[in-house]
Structure formats: C-alpha cells, structure tokens
Design brief:
287 residues, 14 helices, 0% strand, globular
Length: 287
Amino acid sequence: MIYWIIAKTTFADAIRQKVLQIFMVVAIALIIMSIAFAQTLTFSTQGSGGDLSLVKSFGLGMITIAGILIAVMNGVYMVPREIERKTIYTILSKPVNRWEFVVGKMLGSWLTLGAAIGLMGIVFLAVITVKAMGMQGGGASATAIAAGLAEASTSQVQIFDLNMLYGVILAYLQVVLLSSIIIMFSTFLTPTVNFFMGVAVYIVGSLITIIETLKNSPELGRFSQMLYEFVYAIIPNFDKFNVTNTLLHPGDAAVDITYVLLCLAYALFYSLIATLIAVIVFQNKEV
C-alpha cells in the first residue's frame, strides 16, 4: 500500500519539525505546572475539588489549543512544501497515483496528531490521577481546610475520571477534522491564505449554534437567512466537540461512549468528504 508508505514518511517528517516539538513541550510543561497554578489561584477557595476541576479544565483546553496549532501549522504546508522542494515530481514520477499521495498525506497528518494528542493526553491523565490520589490521601489545600471544605471535596473525588479520557478523544477528533479541511485547502490555496481560511472555518464552526439561531430568526431578510443556512450546511460543527463544562459537571446531558462514537462518525464523515475533494482537486492540478 503506497499511501501507507507516504503516511509513515509524512509522520516521520512532521515529528522531526521543531515547531511541533516546541508546541508539545510547552503544552506538556503547562499541564504539569497546572497543579501549582490551581493551588495558588483564588478559585481554590472552592476546596480541593475546585483545584482538581481547574486542572482538568486547563489541561483539556491546553491539549485542544496545542492540537489546533499543530494541525494548522502542519497542514498549511502539507502539499505546498512538497511542491516547493520539488520532491513531488520525484514521488509522482514513480508508480504512485495522485489519490494515493493525498490519502497518504491525510493519514500521515492524522498519525502525527494522534501521537501529539496521545502523549499530551497520557501526561494529562497522569497529572489528574496523581492530583486525585493526593486529595484522597488527605492532600487538601490549606485554603480549602480554612474554608472547612476539605472533607466534602475529597469524599467525592474519583481516582480515574473516564470523562477526561472522553475529553482527550474528542480533542483528537476535533483536530483531525480541522486538519483534513486545511489539507484540502492546501491543494489549491497558498499557505498564508490557507492559514486564515482554516482559522476562519474553525471559528465559524465553533459558533455554529449562534448561526443556527440566526438562520431561524424571522427578523432577518430572506437573503440573510439563505446565507446563514448555507454556512450552517457546509461548515462542520466544531462546538460538538467542545464539551468541557459537560465533562466537568455531568448531569442529564452527560457525555458517554455513545456520544463519543457519534462524534467519531461525524468527524470521519466530514474528513472523508474533505479527502475526496482534495483528491479531485489534486487530480486536475498542474504540478
């Protein structure tokens, strides 16, 4: 399978990039240091449970931000870099189909994101597990004890929170979807334009619930409603993956394995569409 060889080569090249390594090191360092941050912030007056919630929220946010940065910085140069280096001529001169090249690049990007998110996720889960074990062992903060909340907070602590694993998986699915769209753009846009287009798609996709409200607003004209309906139909709903508050405070709308699988199907569907469009565009591209 030639596309798998291209995927492994893409993965190896991406892992060696200094920018990716810096993002990962900084994110991991901040996740580890979040324990100290939580204990010094005023939110710790909520008790040790408040400290742990802050660590969880900060960690998931950091993983998502780092994943988005990696997806954007790696994706915008995915195809243009090969053209600039002229390595694409060497690749296509061999018995390699253009669709195999595009699919290989997509898979390589997904592997890269998997390795990055996976490593950050392991560190994050280890940090919150150690924090939870410390709380059950009587490691409540001094502020919490002064507030008389230590006993109540530690009695409800879970050593391993399955919701946080779901959060890491959803963060990965989110950046995989974003990466697929950016790589699709890279087949016909310059890196600079692709960067802003990718960021714009993510921002609009994160505000999709607002767009849904606007498209149903009777106060808007028909043209405006049609415009919002068009945007709502084609832009992926990235807000579907941003469920940190639900993960931290599960209630009637708690995240479970069924929701995660639905998000997996959603991300895979849009990623496959982006891959198909990229293949069609690259088949007709003059390189």
